Predict the structure.
Amino acid sequence: KQEVTQIPAALSVPEGENLVLNCSFTDSAIYNLQWFRQDPGKGLTSLLLIQSSQREQTSGRLNASLDKSSGRSTLYIAASQPGDSATYLCAVRPGYSTLTFGKGTMLLVSP
Amino acid sequence: NAGVTQTPKFQVLKTGQSMTLQCAQDMNHNSMYWYRQDPGMGLRLIYYSASEGTTDKGEVPNGYNVSRLNKREFSLRLESAAPSQTSVYFCASSEGGEAIYGYTFGSGTRLTVV
């Protein structure tokens, strides 16, 4: 059974810092990996989708990498802002099946 | 705005009552999903529909039923609600079952069973 782990569970940084969120998965036979953002009491917003054949994807200040063989992905946030405060969820898609989620990293960026 | 719409946004039920959570998407997606989110448990799949006319169980299907009414709509029914079903329910859709597609989520239904 695929398991997804996100470290750290919570992170607090001052505004302006660059930061990295980590995601690991137990079965490397995935088809894609998706990073989501969830604001308190809200739904999930897709940030980046990386196909298994890709190494990274970028959107603005966000960069996600994927190392399928080692079962790892990172989400890099450059020049963090208070508006980046949210929970970040990593999810993998194991084959022709559905997403399996990690439990998320709660990020707080202080002014 | 195009996306996934869930109704209601909030609901309080008494134990044993029934209700249906509604979900509709206007992106012409083929696949739809129901997840529940609980503190410390993350998101877990309840049921999904890979295409119109098909439904399959996910990780936690007990106590729920689903109906894929048409390509746009996928409903989740609680026949006899239990306190253990207190949760936030999310509907999602994707263009197809093929793994190249990402998921789009609705804003959720917050259900409390007392």
Chain A has a mean pLDDT of 93. Chain A touches chain B through 24 residues (CB under 8 Å). The two ends of chain A are 41 Å apart (CA to CA).
